[in-house]
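Final report, Chapter 2: Outcomes

The project's central promise was a pipeline that accepts a single protein chain and returns its three-dimensional structure in a standardized token representation, suitable for archiving and comparison. That pipeline is now operational. To close this chapter, we reproduce one record exactly as it appears in the project archive, with the input sequence first and the structure output second.
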Amino acid sequence: MDANTARRRFLYESLVGVGGIALADLLAPRLHAQEPLRNPLAPRKPHFAPKAKSCIFLSMLGGVSQMDSFDPKPALAKFDNTVMDWSKERNTDQPNLFAKPRLILNSPFPFKKHGQCGMDVSSLFPHIAECVDDMAFVRSIQTENGNHPAAVFLMNTGSVMPGRPSAGAWTTFGLGTENQNLPAFVVLPDFRSLPFSGSQQWGSGFLPASFQGTVLRWKGDPIYDLNPPTGQSAETQERQMKLLRSFNRGFTREHPSNPDLQGRIDAYELAYRMQAEVPGVLEIAGESEQTKAAYGLHDPVTESFGKRCLMARKLVEKGVRFVQLYTPSQSWDGHTGITKNHEKNARETDQPIGALLKDLKARGLLDSTLLLWMGEFGRTPDNPAEMRDNAGRDHNTRAMTIWFAGAGVKRGTVAGATDELGFKAVQDIYRMRDVHATVLHLMGLNDLQLTYYSGGRNMRLTDTGGTVIKQILA
């Protein structure tokens, strides 16, 4: 580099540096004048007019068998107890399971057609079957990993690795929420067995902490220590909060770029507002006996999932943006005894989900609420020959059935198809990123436009983008 070039480069970089310092100095008063205690969950405009205002995600952990639920395969009866040919399909996360002879297994659950649409539903789901005219089924979902922990992360975050924001966090990041006295994103897990990695499944990842899910319990107090201390008046508590706000305001002015600090402040503020709102919203005693019976609250088998479904209805009714319910971890994982396994889990969830669908519809909420039912992957049409006496089905990433219902959904329809045994999707194949893109689309968000800069690039729930499942759109 000659002297003239070096001098020009020095002057150029110096001017840019001086200009940057000057610009920062000019903008500093404006930046510090912004309200540090901004509300990150304030309602925001969607990218386009949404079909749904709220989403309820029914997470069936463990992997529901598609050919035993919503994808009937008569060929299973024809080839029952015959050897499954795996010569062309050796790719599996469980090589030991597929190294020995495997026999095709007929479904123990008979199918019947239901509703005006004539939807095929197995005997496992008599209550959901009554609602098929309001539902859309996708029988051709394929996933990227057959290992439970990675597959559940993929289902929730679009990535098989931990650390990414969940779908609920992305949705609330994009839209905020309508009710500022309740969490925007609520999680209702089954405490018998939490999902793998627990709170990471509903975390905010690299998004600000304010967008993570808030866990509510179905039994006892929804949140520990939510109620104020005994003997403390509302006036005293309000004075304390005003003092805390003044401290926080001064501190955040000096540290305006600390999202974790802002997240903690937002959480304290929300907890204060929730003390007045949550008890009334989640009060079940005031519900009619008919409603309680419909959700199965009088039956110990259905009580837990039933109450959580009722809580979900009450939450979206009050403006909560995203509610996610879980079955116990791996509950549908029927490697052996598929009949006993699926009967047990269907018994716990079928009646509450049917009641939720009917209740939302009766209250006029189904037109503004999106429901998604799915697990982390599907199951195989066969089982190792040596386990025939206690037969089940193994993990299958090549085919899974899911369903949507409610706002923006083309009701009483089916998208996609699998082969004659239900082993592999063969028509209109979709991936998890496509499911996420569809959910965001129905909520009024373009998955390619919903971005957050992290790690040197704009990040998305769908990464490089998903394909909206247009067949199920109204």
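Archive annotation: The first strand starts at residue 54 and ends at 59.
This record, like all others produced under the grant, will remain available to the consortium after the project formally closes.
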